[in-house]
Design brief:
With about 500 residues, chain A is mostly helical. Chain A has 20 helices and two strands. The chains are: A mainly alpha (about 500), B mainly alpha (about 230).
Chain lengths: ~500, ~230
C-alpha cells in the first residue's frame, strides 16, 4: 500500500488545489503533500533496504534500490521546492491581487500543475512496466509545460514550444527504443507478455543482442534528449531560464534525473545481453559531448540562469561518464552524483531566483554585490557555487572523485584525465562569474534586505544536506547506493 | 521476400489465408506511406490534417487486420481506440485550432513542396535500405512494414523541421508517432494493451496541451509561425 499512497498524495493535493478557496490553502496543501511524500519515501527506503525490492498493485508498481535513489531525489527536491515556491511566489506576485479573479487563477494553476508535475515524476521510478515508464516521462513534459510558460511572455512561450516539440521527438525515439526492447524478448517470452522490468531483468542475458543494441541507442538518444545530454540539449537552457526559478530547480534537479533513470533501467537490461563495451561507448560519447558543449557555452554566458542550465548539461554528462566507467565505484559515484547534483542545483536555482527578484535582471554583468545586499542569499549562492563545481568539503567532490577513480581503475585513464580537465575549466568559468555577482560593488539603486525568509529556509536545508553528505555518508545511504549499483550490474564484474 | 513472409505467417496462423493477409497489409502499408506524402504535399493546413485523418484510419485498419490474422482481441480494441482518438478527437482539436487562427492557414514551408517531396522519396529509399539491418530474424511481418514505419518516422521528422507553422509541426510529430505505432504492430503485434492505452491517452493530452500553447503563442505574437520564435539563443 505504501507506494500506492505515496503516488496518491500529490494527485490528491493537485485536486484539492483545484478547488481551494484561497492562497493559504494552496500553500498549506502543497507543502504538506511534499512533506508527506518525503516521509513515505523514507518508509519505502527502509522497506527496500530490508527486502531488496517491493511491488504493489498486481506488480504494476515496483521499487528496488535504483528506484529508491530516484524516489529520494524527487522527494527531497520537491519538498525544498515546495517551501521555496511559497516564498518565491508571494514575492513574485506581490503586485497582483491573488485573492480573486485572474490573479488567483494564475496562482492556482501554478500549484495544481506543481503537484501534478511531482506526481508524474514519482510514477517514473515506481513503475514496473517500461511502457508505463515511457508514458510517465512523456507525462512529465505535459505537466510541466505550462509551468515553463508560466510568465506568458514571448520568450517563455518560445521556450515552452521548443521544450514540448524537442522533448516529444526525443520521447518518440525512446518509444521506438522501448518497442525494440519489447521485440528483443519476443523470441523468449512469446508475442504477448507484460513489458515489465521484473519479467525482463531475469532473462536480460538472453535478449536478442542485435535488437537490444539498436534499442539502447534509441533509448540513449531519446531519453537523453530529456536528460539534457548534448547535442540533444537545446531545449534545456531556454526552458530553465524562462521558467519561474522554483520550476527551474525542479526541471534541473529532478526531471533530468527521471529521464536519466530511464536510461539506467535500459542500461541494466542492455549490459547482460551486449556486454559492457557498447553501452559504455555510447554513454562515453554523449557524456563527453555534453561536457564539451557545457564548457564552451559556460564561458560565453551572459545570463546566470542559462549558466546554471549548462552546468546541468555538464553534470548529466558526468553521470553518464560515471555509468560508462562502470564497476561498483563508478556506478556508486554516478548515482551519488545524481543525488548531489539535484540538491546542489536546486539550491543554486533558489538563490538565483532570489537574485532575480531583487535585481529584476538575468544579466550577469548587471548583478554585483549580492552579499552586501542580501547577506544570507549571497553566502548561500557562494556555498552552492563552490559545491556545484566540485570543491571540497561538499558532496559533489566525493562523487566526482569516485567517478574519476573509477575511470582510472577501469582502464579509462585518458577519459578520466580529460574529464578532470573539463571539470577544472568549468570550475574556473562558473566561479569567475559567481565571483563577480556575489562580490563587487553593490548598486545604490537596490534596497538591501532579504527577499523571503521561507525561501532562505529552503536554501539552508539544501546547503546543509550538501555539506553533511560531503563530510559523512550515513551507512544506510551508502548501503542503498551499493545496492543500486548492484542492480545496474556493478557487482558482476 | 513475399514467399518468406508467407511461410512464417503460415507457421504462426494456422488456417488463415497467409498470402492474402500479406497482400492486404502491403496495400495498407502503401496507403500509409501515401498519406505521409500527402501531408508533405499539402499546401493548406486543412489538407495536412485530412491526410493525417486518413493515415490514422488506415493505421486502425492495419491493427484490425493483424488482429484478425493473429487472433488477438487486444489489437481489435487498439484498432477501435486508434480510430476514435486519432481520426475523431485529435483531428477535431487540430481543425478547431486551425479555424481559430484567422489568417494563417498555409503550411509555410522553409522548403518548397516539390523539393520537399523529393527529399521524402530519398528518405523512403533510405528507410528501405536500412530496415533489413534492423530486423534480424523476423518473426512475422518483417521487412516491408518496418521499412514503411521507418520511412514515416523520417518523413515526420522532416515535416517537423521544415514547416514553420506550429500546427504543421504538430502534424509532423503525430506522423512520427503513427510510424512508431505501425512499427510496433509490424514487429511485435503491438505493445501490451495497457501500454497502448497509455500512449494513446498521452498523445491526446499532448495534442490538447500543444493546441492551448499554439493559441497562447498566437495571442502573444499574433502569429503561429515558429520562425517568429527566435529570441532565445546560446
Amino acid at each position: 500500500m505504501l507506494l500506492t499512497i505515496l503516488l496518491l498524495v500529490p494527485l490528491l493535493a493537485s485536486g484539492i488545489c483545484l478547488i481551494a478557496p484561497g492562497r493559504p490553502w494552496l500553500e498549506a496543501v502543497t507543502v504538506t503533500s511534499a512533506a508527506a511524500v518525503l516521509a513515505l519515501a523514507g518508509f519505502a527506503t527502509q522497506q527496500v533496504t530490508l527486502a531488496g525490492h517491493i511491488s504493489e498493485l498486481a506488480n504494476w508498481l515496483y521499487a528496488d534500490a535504483l528506484s529508491i535513489i530516484t524516489l529520494l531525489v524527487i522527494a527531497i527536491v520537491s519538498f525544498t521546492t515546495a517551501i521555496y515556491s511559497v516564498g518565491y511566489l508571494r514575492e513574485d506576485m506581490r503586485e497582483q491581487d491573488v485573492t480573486q479573479g485572474e490573479g488567483l487563477r494564475h496562482l492556482k494553476r501554478y500549484y495544481v500543475l506543481f503537484n501534478l508535475f511531482v506526481f508524474s515524476m514519482l510514477i517514473v521510478p515506481l513503475s514496473n512496466s517500461l511502457g508505463v515508464l515511457w508514458i510517465a516521462i512523456e507525462g512529465t513534459t505535459l505537466a510541466s509545460l505550462f509551468l515553463v510558460s508560466f510568465y506568458g511572455t514571448g520568450e517563455a512561450l518560445e521556450a515552452a514550444w521548443k521544450y514540448v516539440i524537442i522533448g516529444s521527438v526525443g520521447i518518440a525515439l525512446a518509444l521506438f527504443g522501448t518497442i525494440l526492447a519489447y521485440y528483443s524478448a519476443v523470441q523468449i517470452l512469446g508475442t504477448s507478455y507484460d513489458l515489465n522490468w521484473s519479467v525482463l531483468a531475469p532473462v536480460a542475458a538472453h535478449l536478442n543482442p542485435s535488437i537490444m543494441r539498436l534499442s539502447f541507442l534509441f533509448i540513449v538518444v531519446g531519453y537523453g534528449t530529456k536528460a539534457g545530454l548534448a547535442p540533444m540539449h537545446t531545449w534545456l537552457p531556454d526552458a530553465h531560464s524562462e521558467a519561474p526559478s522554483p520550476i527551474s530547480a525542479l526541471l534541473s534537479g529532478v526531471l533530468l534525473n527521471c529521464a536519466m533513470y530511464g536510461i539506467l533501467r535500459f542500461y541494466a537490461l542492455a549490459v547482460p545481453s551486449l556486454g559492457h563495451a557498447y553501452p559504455a561507448a555510447l554513454l562515453l560519447t554523449f557524456g563527453f559531448i555534453s561536457l564539451a558543449v557545457a564548457v564552451l557555452l559556460i564561458f560565453r554566458q551572459r545570463d546566470y540562469k542559462r549558466l546554471l542550465a549548462y552546468s546541468s548539461v555538464e553534470h548529466m554528462g558526468i553521470v553518464a561518464l560515471g555509468v560508462a566507467f562502470g564497476g561498483t565505484l563508478g556506478l556508486f559515484g554516478a548515482l551519488f552524483q545524481v543525488l548531489n547534483h539535484a540538491v546542489t542545483k536546486s539550491l543554486m536555482f533558489f538563490a538565483s531566483g532570489q537574485v532575480l527578484l531583487k535585481y529584476q535582471t538575468k544579466d550577469i554583468s548587471r548583478v554585483s554585490g549580492v552579499i552586501k545586499i542580501m547577506p544570507a542569499t549571497g553566502t548561500l549562492l557562494l556555498v552552492g557555487g563552490l559545491a556545484l563545481t566540485g570543491a571540497p568539503p561538499f558532496s559533489i567532490f566525493i562523487s566526482e572523485f569516485a567517478i574519476l577513480s573509477a575511470g582510472f581503475r577501469q582502464g579509462y585513464a585518458v577519459a578520466a584525465i580529460a574529464l578532470l580537465v573539463l571539470i577544472a575549466l568549468i570550475f574556473i568559468g562558473v566561479l569567475f562569474y559567481l565571483n563577480s555577482m556575489v562580490f563587487g560593488k553593490a548598486s545604490a539603486a537596490i534596497e538591501p534586505g532579504e527577499v523571503s525568509y521561507l525561501s532562505i529556509l529552503a536554501m539552508v536545508l539544501s546547503a546543509l544536506l550538501v555539506l553533511v553528505l560531503g563530510v559523512y555518508i550515513p551507512t544506510p545511504l551508502s548501503n542503498l547506493l551499493h545496492q543500486a549499483a548492484a542492480v545496474l550490474g556493478g557487482t558482476s564484474r | 521476400m513475399l514467399a518468406f513472409n508467407s511461410i512464417t505467417l503460415a507457421a504462426i496462423t494456422a488456417g488463415a489465408p497467409p498470402a492474402s493477409a500479406v497482400q492486404i497489409l502491403q496495400i495498407l502499408g502503401a496507403l500509409l506511406l501515401l498519406t505521409a506524402f500527402a501531408a508533405v504535399a499539402a499546401r493548406l493546413l486543412a489538407g495536412a490534417i485530412r491526410a493525417y485523418a486518413i493515415q490514422s484510419l488506415v493505421l486502425g485498419l492495419v491493427a484490425a487486420v493483424v488482429g484478425y490474422f493473429t487472433g488477438s482481441t487486444d489489437l481489435y480494441i487498439v484498432a477501435v481506440l486508434t480510430i476514435i482518438v486519432k481520426c475523431g478527437a485529435i483531428v477535431w482539436i487540430l481543425s478547431n485550432v486551425t479555424n481559430r487562427l484567422p489568417v494563417q492557414r498555409e503550411i509555410r514551408p522553409y522548403l518548397n513542396i516539390p523539393a520537399s517531396l523529393l527529399i521524402c522519396v530519398l528518405l523512403t529509399l533510405l528507410a528501405f535500405f536500412v530496415s533489413p539491418a534492423v530486423v534480424a530474424q523476423g518473426t512475422f511481418l518483417n521487412e516491408p512494414p518496418l521499412a514503411i514505419s521507418i520511412a514515416m518516422v523520417l518523413i515526420g521528422l522532416f515535416i517537423l523541421s521544415s514547416r514553420r507553422h506550429a500546427v504543421a509541426q504538430v502534424i509532423g510529430l503525430l506522423t512520427i508517432e503513427n510510424g512508431l505505432f505501425s512499427g510496433a504492430i509490424a514487429i511485435a503485434y503491438g505493445m501490451p494493451l495497457i501500454v497502448e492505452f497509455g500512449i494513446l491517452f498521452d498523445i491526446l493530452i499532448a495534442v490538447i496541451v500543444m493546441s492551448l500553447l499554439v493559441a497562447l503563442i498566437h495571442r502573444e505574437l499574433i502569429s503561429a509561425d515558429t520562425a517568429d520564435l527566435r529570441r532565445l539563443k546560446g
